[in-house]
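Reagents: none. Just compute today. DNA mismatch repair protein MutT.
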Amino acid sequence: MSTDTSAPRVVYEGKYQRMLVRGTWEYSERTHANGLAAIIIAVTPEDKVLFVEQFRVPLQAKCIEMPAGLVGDIDASESIEVSAVRELEEETGWTAEQAEVLMIGPTSAGASNEKIAFVRATGLRKVGNGGGDDSEDITVHEVPRAQAAAWLVEKIAQGYQLDAKLWAGLWMIEHHLDGTPRG
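Predicted 3D structure written out:
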């Protein structure tokens, strides 16, 4: 096992990320928001799962994701739960009475320090159209929960990129973290 404790060397720093080299390892860090993002697991009162679609520049493709966003990017003191509800409303037009952090873990441990918080949003109600902020062009999809997995597989066949965290989110809709069914 190789553990390099030397100081990292910054090779690039932008508004949102910096690129570092530590020994022979190259990786990126978030420059704000504590390196934490929230992915929101949200099911409407009509039992529809909320997904968002947007073009992602790094992939040069349309992607299907669960609503998500940086924690504390607008207000550094904002909690994970408050950030999650704000992002849910901004991206989908739905708000939530409650938000519960289910787990936090790395998104790509070999490439970035970013961590993701899976947040279950409950008590949903429609308050707007969604679509994101001025820099985003988000399409909202409300998919019946019973057909969500099949819908995602269909999107793959249509050439969409799917965020792999979608599958974990779908599992968390149906299960507690110990694996027992919800219900």
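The CA atoms of residues 20 and 143 lie 40 Å apart.
Action item: order primers for follow-up constructs.
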